[in-house]
Amino acid sequence: MLVSTRLKLGYLGAAALDTWLCGSSLRAARVARLVTKPALMPLLASSFATSGRAIGSPLRATTLAGQAFGWGGDVALLGHGTRAFALGAGAFGVGHAAYIGGFVRQRSASPLFRAGSTRAALRLWAVAGPAMALAAARQERVLGPAVAAYTGLLTGTFATGCHLDASLPPSARRLTALGAGLFLLSDTVLGARQFVLPLLPVDAPPRLHAALERVVMGSYTAAQLLLAEGAARA
Predict the structure, then answer these.
(1) CA 198 to CA 196: how far, in whole Å?
(2) Inside any domain, residue 2
(3) N or C: at which end does the chain have fewer Cβ atoms within 10 angstroms?
(4) Three-state SS for 99?
(5) Structural domain for 170, as ranges
(6) Tens of pLDDT along 2-51?
């Protein structure tokens, strides 16, 4: 078995375990996540970097950068409080900027703003972005601008990831678009859990919080894998 394949299987195992652990309230689960979560991006990046298929990819450098800053975000979000959230969002924001840079260089010749995926992303951002930023600002004023900027970058990743050049292999374009879409889903659910649920007049049950945590982590780890797989095929 190739080294890249072994590392990818390691990533899949760590992602599945961390997704289960993140929904547990046990102290042992929180301690275990200090190992599983920081291991995710190094495993995926090592698998991608050692993949023969990815060596000549035009998205290689930007994907590795996105994974590196994703690791920084993962580690920061193991902490709690405003500072940890802001650091995590900042790291992921730089990661999205890296992904966007790669996608823009491999963009379709057709205008970006005429694409249906771009219009859909902008409509979603117009509804959810300001609302999420306002909800974040009600918790901590400093988080409002940070969340607004992050949602813009997240929207940009989805729009540009769905607008790659038709000369790239169809599998690369499909996997990248799906990965960008899952990233958008993951962070939308995260924002709703973090900022919207606390505003409801009735506290959400613990099972709902656990389920949302697992949706966030499961869709995030799948998104990063799909973006890597798409880049490897580009």
Answers:
(1) 6
(2) no
(3) N
(4) helix
(5) 57-233
(6) 899 999 999 999 999 999 999 998 999 999 999 999 999 999 999 999 99
Please tell me the distance from the alpha carbon of residue 189 to that of residue 210, in angstroms, as a whole number: 12
CB 143 within 8 Å of CB 151: no
- The string of pLDDT tens digits covering residues 143-196 is 889 899 999 999 999 999 999 999 999 999 999 999 999 999 999 999 988 888
Helix ranges (H only) for the chain are 3-21, 27-49, 60-76, 82-105, 116-139, 143-161, 170-191, 206-233
Helix pair 60-76, 206-233: axis angle to 10 deg: 160
- Has residue 203 been placed in a domain? yes
Joined tokens for residue 195: 């900022």
Provide the number of structural domains found in the chain: 1
Whether 37 maps to a domain, the answer reads: no
Give the whole-angstrom CA distance, residue 21 versus residue 218: 11
